Amino acid sequence: MMRNLPNNYTRDDLLQMIDSQGFAGRYDFVYFPIDFRTHAALGYAFLNLLTPEDAEDFRRSMDGFSRWRLPSGKVCSVAWSHPHQGLQSHVERYRNSPLFHVSVPDEYRPVVFEDGRRVPFPPPTKKIKPPRQGTERMLV
Fold first, then answer.
1. Residue pLDDT, tens place only, 25-78
2. Which residues contact 129 (CB under 8 A, 6 or more apart)?
3. Starting from the edge strand earliest in sequence, which strands make up the sheet with 27-31, in order?
4. Beta strands in 7-87 (DSSP E)
């Protein structure tokens, strides 16, 4: 898990930054949550690295990172994500999520990769409900 990420970053900005730091092709899952109301990043991301060595290299490289492409005083921190670890756990957590409702823009959704290339997210196993906050429907 990455924390203290710039709120004005997009998922593409985050992926470009991760790749530019030498981690292209070394992860298979990324989710960069976006606030449905403000359309700003929430400042954290979930990333699954392919091997324990990749994860440790990532922690050493990115913990304390502050050379953002856009102006920001934030300093990244990296930690293990609980309770979800591994690609399959992340996929199972999100595949039936309202994030995959047709009303949600692609850039708000988790993404999966194989060999450094984005691939389709595994399909849901049940009907996807629209996103809500309390009783209010979001993005529809």
1. 999 999 999 998 899 999 999 999 999 999 999 999 999 999 999 999 999 999
2. 98, 101
3. 77-78, 2-3, 44-49, 27-31, 111-114, 117-119
4. 27-31, 44-49, 77-78
Q: What are phi and psi of 21, to 5 degrees?
A: -90, 10
At 34, give phi and psi (nearest 5°). Answer: -125, 140
The confidence score (pLDDT) of residue 138 equals 64
SS3 assignment, position 73: coil
What is the CB neighbour count within 10 angstroms for residue 43?
18
- C-alpha span between 41 and 32 (Å, rounded): 7
- Token couple for 42: 């929430």
pTM above 0.90, yes or no: yes
d(CA 15, CA 23): 9
Which residue stretches of 1-140 are H helix? 11-18, 52-62, 87-94
More confident residue, 107 or 137: 107
Cis geometry, peptide bond prior to residue 83 (ω within 30 degrees of 0): yes
